[in-house]
Design a protein that fits this description.
- Residues 5-18 have low confidence and may be disordered.
- By secondary structure, the chain is an alpha/beta fold.
- The protein is built from 22 helices and six strands.
- The N and C termini lie far apart (71 Å).
- α15 packs across α22 (388-418) and α16 runs antiparallel to α22 (388-418).
- It folds into two domains: 5-269, no CATH class; 278-418, no CATH class.
- A hairpin with a 2-residue loop joins β2 and β3 (34-41).
- Strands 1-2-3-6-4-5 form a six-stranded mixed beta sheet, sandwiched between helices.
Length: 419
């Protein structure tokens, strides 16, 4: 491997005072005979769109790379991509939380963008469209967002995970107007990092998953694509990479320093850490203790046993039903949650939220219009209850939350009666 040589240049030094590139974060790195031009952008910035246009129109690149994965690329280029969403299958596979998280992140970005009449990710879309117009290859170099979120979630402790969840929830209720100058400051960070605000900066594992690992991943993808092109006898000499500016410094370092083969790095960074088993076993243990406590209560007298059983039914069924109603569920969906919730000991691995959501979909089947307007509806927090797709996700999540809360409250109540 050739020793990498680096030439990092500021656009300010290379452009005149009236040049649009003067204020744009820009770096150039030469590695293994390929010059990579890294353009740092804000994903909701007019200036970033113009900078992309300027670079592609004035410089001759052999390939254009963008900070997108396949899923985000399809969503960006096809506004009707959500129409293909199999909501029932997502719920059955336990992916409802991940889809809701993706929608929340999309809403955060789109809400920032709608003030200024610019499409979120417009600079990425512009880069792809100009590459197509010039018949240049388009390289999608970012890691799948679902893998990034899973690695981030599983990289932190149990209590720190509330920071991730609260960051997503807070992004839905933030309605303050954002000055365009503040949006330009997003060039100093990353959209995912911004969604979790200061928590990402205070948690090294979370920051590494959201930013550091993706710096390594995208740099390795650039090297991999260059090697693939060379193997196909279509070598590239100059590549433009349009990335969030929060990745500029990290990717510059990675392109200089990486020694491992890119395929191995990509495989490692694409691996999802296994979910911790102890929360599941604790949950099953708590459930077993409560069931035994109810059985023991009957040995102490029928009245005490009936009271314990009543507490279990009212707390688990009642709070599962309440969660369903808070999610905007139909009264029959809430009734289903009330009936199914207390039966958890007989189906410990089937979440009550999945049953309630299935009933909700049967009673209020999402229409084509709901899928088409999904991305726009979830921009405002009230739209989550208006759209039948997002409302079904809320029923699933809040019903499960109510059930878990009810389980622990019932356990405390029953044990207090026995003690």
């Amino acid at each position: 491997m050739n020793d990498p040589t680096t030439a990092v240049s500021s656009a300010t030094a290379a452009a005149s005072s009236n040049d649009i590139l003067a204020d744009q974060p820009l770096a150039r790195v030469t590695r293994d005979g390929v010059e990579y031009t890294l353009l740092g952008t804000a994903h909701v910035s007019r200036a970033s769109v113009v900078a992309v246009q300027k670079l592609i129109e004035t410089e001759n690149f052999d390939a254009i790379a963008v900070e997108l994965c396949d899923t985000r690329y399809r969503a960006l280029r096809d506004r009707e991509a959500w129409r293909n969403l199999d909501l029932l299958q997502i719920i059955r596979q336990g992916k409802a939380g991940m889809v809701a998280a993706n929608l929340a992140l999309s809403a955060y970005q789109r809400r920032l963008a709608e003030q200024f009449g610019i499409e979120p990710g417009a600079e990425m879309k512009t880069a792809a469209e100009l590459a197509e117009a010039q018949h240049k290859p388009i390289w999608l170099i970012d890691r799948e967002v679902s893998i990034t979120l899973k690695r981030a979630y599983r990289s932190v402790g149990f209590f720190q995970r509330f920071g991730i969840l609260s960051g997503l929830v807070a992004s839905l209720f933030e309605r303050g107007e954002v000055a365009e100058a503040d949006i330009e400051k997003l060039k100093q960070g990353d959209m995912l990092q911004g969604a979790f605000n200061e928590f990402a900066e205070q948690s090294e594992p979370l920051f590494r998953s959201l930013i550091g690992e993706r710096d390594s991943y995208m740099s390795a993808r650039l090297r991999q694509e260059s090697q693939t092109a060379q193997s196909a006898n279509t070598p590239v000499k100059r590549v433009l990479a349009v990335i969030g500016a929060g990745h500029l410094a990290g990717m510059t370092r990675e392109l200089e320093a990486q020694q491992e083969a890119p395929a191995g790095m990509i495989q490692t960074l694409n691996t999802t850490p296994p979910a911790a088993q102890w929360p599941k076993w604790i949950g099953l243990g708590v459930l077993a203790i409560i069931v035994c406590a109810i059985a023991f209560a009957f040995t102490r007298g029928a009245h005490l046993g009936v009271s314990a059983l009543r507490d279990w039914v009212l707390f688990t069924g009642g709070l599962a039903a309440l969660g369903t109603l808070l999610g905007g569920g139909h009264p029959l969906s809430a009734l289903t949650a009330f009936v199914v919730g207390p039966l958890k000991p007989f189906r410990p691995f089937v979440p009550v939220g999945a049953v309630a959501a299935a009933v909700e979909m049967t009673l209020r089947r999402p229409r084509v219009a709901d899928f088409e307007s999904l991305r726009d509806d979830v921009i405002d927090w009230r739209g989550w209850w208006k759209n039948r797709v997002s409302r079904t996700l809320l029923v699933f999540l809040l019903c499960n939350f109510g059930m878990v809360l009810g389980e622990y409250l019932a356990g405390i109540r029953i044990l207090n009666r026995l003690l």
